[in-house]
Fold:
Amino acid sequence: MIKSAETARERILTAANKLFYAEGIRAVSLDTIAEKAGITKKTVYYHFKSKDDLIEAYLASRDQPNLNQFRKWFGEAEGELPDKVQAIFRQIAVSARHPKWKGCGFLRTAAELANMPGHPAMKVGAGHKKKFEAWMAEEFEVAGIDCAPDLARHIVLLLDGAFSTILVHRDASYAEAAGEAARALVSSAVINQAA
Amino acid sequence: MIKSAETARERILTAANKLFYAEGIRAVSLDTIAEKAGITKKTVYYHFKSKDDLIEAYLASRDQPNLNQFRKWFGEAEGELPDKVQAIFRQIAVSARHPKWKGCGFLRTAAELANMPGHPAMKVGAGHKKKFEAWMAEEFEVAGIDCAPDLARHIVLLLDGAFSTILVHRDASYAEAAGEAARALVSSAVINQAA
DNA sequence: AGAAGTATACTCACCAGTGAATATACTTCA
DNA sequence: TGAAGTATATTCACTGGTGAGTATACTTCT
Structure:
């Protein structure tokens, strides 16, 4: 029956999500994932062609949820455009203070797979980041800001910088610093627009 | 004899540098490193307590050379303070266009070891990044800029953001975008200082 | 001789992936 | 309708290979 098949596949994906994110791609074996999912490794191979295939599926499963999270933080924030952008960074700081936080799964996977630039998971990761950047650019465009794509890229750089530095220092306040910088850049763009 | 001991140790470290950077920490075995260094694995274990110990030594060996590289780029750049900061990002863009470029070794190692926050290599990596930040802050301080530490942190965020996004997209132009943002932040700080 | 350094040859655990068999449910046709 | 056949989903047990780390012995230099 289709229902139960999807349940098994989802259990694998859920286990992969937790383990890959918590421990890293290469640190986690399919045996471990299978065990956590409560099934046999062969079943993993029934649903996924290979470990690489599962890695790709893991990232793909995070694409929309992550983007929606950012959209929500941005959309629900009070204030003007700079405040709304800053809010994203503030929320990241909050998340990063949770003990289970281990950075951005996309970035960490990219770091681990840096020696395999053509890896399908890398494409998913790059696509995810591009979507975020495009969304930011669109928000800036709608707000009537000049050079919206440039500003969006600057925000992306601060965002990924925040993910990276927080991980290195285990200090979530870097997200707040990034939020200040982002706010300054957006504010300055808003002023230019008015001129 | 000390001389030959250091020679063997250095050969190990050289091999570890190349392989860890090119392939990643967990993707490279000590067998591979020993082979590349032209010695046996046992000799590796004579000079290094464990793989973790070698990972730490690998990062430690990159600390000063990397910092010196940044100092050189900054020091030799023409122009005012914003130009000098921007020059660092321009040079990173140049480096990142080389096919062997695989991001920042410190950041990638931190990503791989995210599940081991107390790992000695993580401390070395965090220390390295702190040194960069402190150096930047000092340069800003000397230039008489207000809130020099804050600005330095913003530059660090853009720098590590550049490393990360270039790696994800395989597009060195992100470094140039980061350089523009950095320039804008420094310029704006210089103006405030004048006021 | 003896200490430092290196090599041979090994252990034990784990890992990605597979072969063969089985259970379950859906389809087809007499 | 119900038996036979087929696709889906799953398990157990395994393989070839590699991983970190080690016991022991040989070499070389002082």
